[in-house]
Amino acid sequence: MYAALKSIGAYIPKKVLTNKDFESMVDTTDEWITKRTGIKERHIAAEDELTSDMGVEAAKVAIHRAGLKINEIDMIVCATISPDYFCMPSTACVIASKLGRTNVTAFDISAACTGFIYALAIAKAFIESGMKKNVLIVGAEKLSSIVDYTDRTTCVLFGDGAGAAVVSATRKKTEAITDIHVSADGNYGDLLMTPGCGVKNPCSEKVIEEKLCTMKMKGNETFKIAVRTLTSDVVNILNDNEVSAEDIKHFIPHQANYRIIKAVGDALKLTKEQVVLTVEKYGNTSSASIPMAMNDIWESGRLQHGDTMLLDAFGGGLTWGSALLPF
Ligand code: ACO
Q: Which residues form the Beta-ketoacyl-[acyl-carrier-protein] synthase III C-terminal domain (predicted)?
């Protein structure tokens, strides 16, 4: 049995925060943000809108497009670093409940911006082993709830949103996910972290005062490792599967920074037409960024069934991964 990506869906919150808006919030300019990141605006969830709410909306679209009923979904995996609840219940369980699906396997995974690719790998493994038939994977983030809006080095980068996909069992090899690489190096954990509210620095007045539950990033060091790691990872997955860069119809990288995407695209000698860019309008939405980008090209008619896609992501942990698959 093989695992195939059946459908994609996304949910994008209505409220937009532009670079201009940030000029009155922190010491920054539209010019700096655009030049250094490629981001022009990002969407922000409503105050009462939870990560699970956005995940549910994206999931409904993906399930509908897969032509399935909710009770045909036998596993839900949610990748998120901004779960509704700190320890429990998992956001996947909340999503299952809001979708009206009980008696289902449901759990969260934490792999930061690489979360969607990790979730895809898990879905593939469960399906290929014969344990599951239709897996819903969700990447959903309300990053605005873990951003320090007084820290110019991080607040301009992140946005909210959700993406979802259905991965199903198939006997057709031509539909099968070709290969997935997922990796991590915990020695670089301090480059990107939320230091507070875990066991190491439990929630306290001091932790809240020092905003230790918000994202801290050593951006420049992360940038250099990201370019190096992503480039070697995509080269490896292409070589392992004897696929050339010209055969890739859509290179869909994690949308963190235009300069990172360009460096990896240039290293692979990809054309502009092959590279999918949504960072300008959504910013970095962590685990939601790849499915949101896939949904964009599907809805615009650019993504057609049979197209070969190369996914690529990098995030806190440090984690990274890539996936090669047909749509
Ligand atoms: N506006 C104006 N100036 C700023 C801003 C801002 N918003 N942010 C930083 N600066 C200043 C810095 O203070 C610094 O000033 P100094 O020279 O006086 O010290 C200067 O700009 C340069 O700072 P750098 O950090 O060197 O800038 P860089 O070109 O590296 O860009 C950025 C910063 C955009 C964060 C980049 O490093 C980056 O994208 N890094 C990778 C992020 C990433 O991929 N993260 C992984 C996924 S995220 C996840 O897993 C959740």
A: 238-325
